[in-house]
Structures are given as C-alpha cells and as structure tokens.
C-alpha cells in the first residue's frame, strides 16, 4: 500500500452520493434520515482489489449538480477514477451523466476510469430509469453499470472494488526488452 488513489463521486443533487459512501464505509446510514446538502467531503478507505491487494483510497464526495450547473474544472484533473451516480427515480439525474462523462473525457483526453451507479434500485414504484435503458447507454459509452440500494450495503461493495482494481492495475507490458542484445564493455584489470 503505497500511493493513495483518488475516486471522485459525482452526480446531481439528491441522488444519494453521501448516503452511498457513508453506508459503504461505515454501515451507519438509516433510510429516511434527513440529509443535508454536501459542499465537499473526503473519506479515507482501504479497499481490497480483485487481485487481493489492499489499496488506500481517498473518496471525494462532491456537491450535487443542478441540471444547469457545471462541475468545477479542478475536479477533473486529480482523480484516478470517477463514480457517476444517478437516481433511478429521476430521469434528469440520468440524462446529466452524458454531459458529465463528456466533460471528464474532454479534460482527461479519454483516459479516465469511470463507472456508473444507479442508486435507489429498491424504489420500483417511482422508477423513471429502466435498467435496460441505463445498460444500453453504458454499453454505448463503454463503462460498467451497477444498480444499488443504500438499504443493501453489500450492493455497494462491488462497484468500488471494480473501480479500485482498474485504477491500481499494474502495467501490462514490461519495459525490459529481453530480445535486445546489450552492449557490454569489458574492462581488463591489471593487478599491481
């Protein structure tokens, strides 16, 4: 565990970003508890990757975006990964993901690890975003999608393990080129 990896959690106001993070890390969120608008919070965690390696992660919880609000540009440059969160009962929060993803890719030159999390999956009677609709969009954008419920803490674990595994992936190619012959210099030593 060397480097501290950074994950930015972002999305519209009221999608449950803070509840999701606090339930994931502490298991202390109670459904129906009044929530207050987040300005910005930072959480520290140790997440075991799918390779069995424990990685230190700093999770940044951002203020919720309104449909007309842009994400501050400095948020795009420092994270190693992004978790875009929408509320399955809010079509507007889902639509906002497309522009948010484009903003990230523009600043990061299409080199960003991004996942999408549909929150409040347990609220089927008020659902506005069908899973298949979100899945079709995520396939088109080539990013992984999860639907989760803060009520089910276990559903929150896999997306963050996946994202942490992606951002901490060791390089796949060696910089050592065994096919090249190295030039060596032989130095004759003379004993005196």
UniProtKB/TrEMBL annotation:
PROSITE patterns in the record: RAB, RAS
UniProt KW keywords: GTP-binding, Nucleotide-binding
UniProt GO molecular function: GTP binding; GTPase activating protein binding; GTPase activity
Keyword Nucleotide-binding belongs to the record: yes
Listed transmembrane segments: none
InterPro entries: KBRS, P-loop_NTPase, Small_GTP-bd, Small_GTPase
Keyword Cytoplasm: no
Chain spans, region Disordered: 172-192
GO BP: any one term: negative regulation of canonical NF-kappaB signal transduction
Record-stated family: Belongs to the small GTPase superfamily. Ras family. KappaB-Ras subfamily.
Protein name: NF-kappa-B inhibitor-interacting Ras-like protein 1
Organism the protein comes from: Lottia gigantea (Giant owl limpet)
């Amino acid at each position: 565990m060397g480097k501290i990896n950074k994950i930015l959690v972002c999305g519209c106001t009221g999608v449950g970003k803070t509840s999701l993070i606090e339930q994931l890390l502490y298991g202390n969120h109670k459904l129906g508890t009044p929530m207050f608008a987040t300005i910005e919070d930072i959480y520290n965690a140790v997440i075991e990757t799918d390779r069995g390696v424990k990685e230190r992660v700093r999770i940044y919880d951002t203020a919720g975006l309104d449909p007309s609000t842009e994400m501050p540009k400095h948020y795009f440059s420092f994270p190693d990964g992004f978790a875009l969160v929408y509320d399955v009962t809010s079509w507007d929060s889902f639509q906002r993901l497309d522009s948010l993803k484009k903003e990230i890719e523009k600043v990061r030159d299409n080199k960003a690890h991004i996942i999408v999390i549909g929150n409040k999956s347990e609220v089927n009677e008020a659902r506005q975003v069908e899973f298949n609709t979100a899945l079709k969009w995520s396939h088109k954008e080539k990013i992984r999608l999860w639907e989760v419920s803060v009520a089910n803490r276990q559903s929150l674990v896999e997306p963050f393990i996946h994202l942490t595994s992606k951002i901490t992936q060791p390089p796949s190619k060696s910089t050592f080129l065994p096919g090249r012959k190295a030039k060596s210099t032989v130095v004759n030593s003379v004993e005196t």
